[in-house]
């Protein structure tokens, strides 16, 4: 199989893995914070938080900041992997 065909099949697989659950799974996608809050309320209903947030951004901004954090982390990991591979290729005799 040619490399181009493999790449197209892999890309189609990734797209299907991302889209199919959104189409066929009828569930509410909630965060861990909401689930933890519900669990705390069921375990101890009289619990009072120690403090509240000074500034709570809108959900769109919160999602954007989370995506930015993930992109920065992925960039850092890619940089470190590239750095180590570059050092390894320089140290090998040609």
UniProtKB/TrEMBL annotation:
The chain crosses the membrane at residues 64-84. It is a multi-pass membrane protein. One of its GO terms (molecular function) is cobalt ion transmembrane transporter activity. Its main location: membrane. Keywords: Cell membrane, Cobalamin biosynthesis, Cobalt, Cobalt transport, Ion transport, Membrane, Transmembrane, Transmembrane helix, Transport. It holds the Pfam family CbiN. Pathway: Cofactor biosynthesis; adenosylcobalamin biosynthesis. It is found in: Cell membrane. InterPro entries: CbiN. GO terms for biological process: cobalamin biosynthetic process. GO terms for cellular component: plasma membrane. Belongs to the CbiN family. Forms an energy-coupling factor (ECF) transporter complex composed of an ATP-binding protein (A component, CbiO), a transmembrane protein (T component, CbiQ) and 2 possible substrate-capture proteins (S components, CbiM and CbiN) of unknown stoichimetry. Part of the energy-coupling factor (ECF) transporter complex CbiMNOQ involved in cobalt import. This is Cobalt transport protein CbiN.
């Amino acid at each position: 199989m040619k490399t181009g065909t493999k790449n197209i099949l892999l890309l189609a697989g990734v797209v299907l893995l991302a889209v199919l659950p959104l189409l066929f799974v009828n569930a509410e996608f909630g965060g861990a914070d909401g689930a933890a809050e519900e669990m705390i309320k069921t375990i101890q209903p009289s619990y009072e938080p120690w403090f509240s947030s000074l500034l709570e951004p809108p959900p769109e901004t919160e999602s954007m900041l989370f995506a930015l954090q993930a992109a920065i982390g992925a960039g850092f990991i890619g940089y470190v992997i590239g750095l180590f591979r570059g050092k390894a290729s320089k140290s090998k005799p040609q």
